[in-house]
Design a protein that fits this description.
The protein is an all-beta fold. It is built from no helices and 10 strands.
């Protein structure tokens, strides 16, 4: 998986298709990502001695194949490639614009 925390992505499949957000968390073992303000689910919180029970809305994970990175130049969905920069370090690049993603 080539996505990292903080990447701007667009959802390309599912009920949230077309929405954009930034990656909050990457779950590598499950191949899923949690995106800010996308794919909400309700979580029932049981009451304890001090706090009453409540229903909270939290972001649920989305499979990584259902999101694509947004190209910083064209502002459209793009695939991610790998390349080596002038210093010899491996970096991620946006396939549409060939622009380096990692600074």
């Amino acid at each position: 998986m080539n996505l990292k925390k903080g990447d701007k992505v667009i959802v390309i499949a599912g009920k949230e298709k077309g929405k954009e957000g930034s990656v909050m968390k990457v779950l590598r073992s499950e191949n899923k990502v949690i995106i800010e303000n996308i794919n909400f689910m309700k979580k029932h919180q049981k009451s304890d001695g001090q706090n009453p029970g409540s229903i909270k809305e939290i972001e649920a994970p989305i499979h990584a194949s259902n999101v694509m990175l947004i190209d910083p130049d064209t502002k459209k969905a793009t695939r991610i490639g790998k390349a080596t920069n002038k210093k010899g370090k491996k970096t991620r690049i946006a396939k549409k614009s060939n622009k380096e993603l990692d600074s």
